[in-house]
Amino acid sequence: MPFYATKQKSLEKSSAFAKRLLDNSPALTEFQYREQAEKLLTATIDRFPELFLKKGNAFPLYEALQHLFTDLPADYENDKDLTDDTAHFWYLFLREHFPKETTAMKRRKISMDYWLDFDDFAGSFDWDDPSF
Predict the structure, then answer these.
(1) What is the pTM of this model?
(2) CA 12 to CA 15: how far, in whole Å?
(3) Which of 26, 49, 66, 132 places its Cα 20 to 30 Å from the Cα of 124?
(4) Backbone dihedral region for residue 123 (phi beyond 0: left; psi -120 to 50: alpha; all else: beta)
(5) How many CA atoms lie less than 13 Å away from 96 in the CB half-sphere?
(6) Calpha distance 20→29 (Å, rounded)
(7) What pLDDT score was predicted for residue 42?
């Protein structure tokens, strides 16, 4: 799993921090719904700054964003395909605390194939799972 630090710089605004976090991942830098992802991440930073630990890894958060925007099976909340419990936490956390925003993402679903072009997300799905 790649490591992307979640440390916010001194005096860095949450919108700039969100942009910088998304810029770490090539898949999210070029992402067609980047603006929506950036708004959700900014709102998350504003409401829950304590979740962005100095030595934390943002990759599980990126993976949760990936799954929120991807066309996945309907029972995905019981997710066994996220790489770890932290990614699953972020996925459920964002759905619970930002229901309006995450519901709007359902209308912006993209194919899982999009993520395969990027090294940081290539291993995020279990392609042997028959539900895919």
Answers:
(1) 0.79
(2) 8
(3) 49
(4) alpha
(5) 7
(6) 10
(7) 97
**Tokens of residue 102, six digits:** 């995450």
Rg of the chain over Cα atoms, rounded to whole angstroms, equals 14
Q: How far apart are CA 104 and CA 68, in angstroms?
A: 10
Give the helix/strand (H/E) hosting 34: helix 34-47
Residue ranges of the alpha helices (H) in 50-105?
59-69, 85-97, 99-105
Residues with Cβ within 8 Å of residue 110, at least 6 apart in sequence: 32, 33, 69, 70, 71
What is the identity of the amino acid at 11?
Answer: L
Average pLDDT along the chain, 132 residues, taken 10 residues at a time: 82 94 85 91 96 89 86 57 76 92 79 74 43 34
Please give the Cα distance from 9 to 97 (Å, whole number): 25
Burial of residue 96 (CB within 10 Å: 0-12, 13-18, 19+) is exposed
Q: Buried b vs exposed e over 46-57: b needs ≥16 C-beta within 10 Å?
A: eeeeeebeeebb
Residue with tokens 């708004």: 39
